[in-house]
Design a protein that fits this description.
With 314 residues, this protein is α/β, with parallel strands linked by helices. The protein has one domain. It has 11 helices and 6 strands. The chain has a 6-stranded mixed β-sheet, sandwiched between helices. Helix 3 crosses helix 5, helix 5 crosses helix 11 and helix 6 crosses helix 9. 37% of the residues are buried.
Amino acid sequence: MIRQFEDVLKARGIVIAPGSHLERICIRIMDWERQRKGLEPINLMEDVRKPWSEALGLWDLVRHITDLSSHPGFDALIPHLALLNKGSAPQNVVALQDEASNKVFELLIGLISLRVGKDVSTDDPNHSKGDNPDVIVTLEEKRWGLACKVLNGFSPLTMFERLEEGVNQIENSPKVETGCVVFNLKNVLDHNLLWPILNLDQFRSGKLPYFAAWPSLDCPLSVLLEVAGQKHRDLVEVNTEPELRKLFHGKKATPGALLFLQTGTALRTSVGPLMTSVGVFVYMDLFETGQCPKALNLLNYAMHHRPVPTQSSS
């Protein structure tokens, strides 16, 4: 798939830059394939969690790119594709103060939107004025604006500020009827908690590492859901519900936010641990209406490369 990914980029005039973070991950993936075939030795003392997570995050992004490369709306994302060479492309690892990586998050949301929506457009990543939602897409016959935000810290006050920015972007855009702020929590997730080394002290003393492996995907998923729930509770507790209601009163934005959580981890199998990516969109229903807009549920299916269920099976 990496070769296919390269071909898709080359067809748009983009070459994986020598020495870039993107190239290093691609080379690492090909090295692992040679190790799998017994052509290179495996370093058993390496903490593989971050390199594997980066590879899994890139693989997920590459799969969206290659799957959608023939989509008629794909080329609208070319300016964002070019930024894959500029920063950290995976969206499941920490990348603090990395503006190019933040723009790649917009690319991911654009790709996901292409899977389930129509007429996708994106704000120019190189000349963005911040006065439009980053991604605009028709979902459920409405023009939605998706304002993408990447949190760099844990402060609920900062989260409110970013939420307010996104709500205003949606409100000020004449191109959209409604919208939602989408937060990426990659920089505030404790990724090691999702994939711990069981003998960390001994590993630091020179012993072989023993990496945890979950019995099922439900286990790390429940951790991600708890993180999302805590972010929700902290936002409301610190900023207060009256202030949040004031923010959304009379606005086009849906009264909530979509949280994107993704990380690398390992699962137990009969033949040993399986490295995998786990991720989810969680709708932060700020006023506990008990409803998530159907259009946003569609994005969750698309994120996991799954077909949208028909009305009869939903």
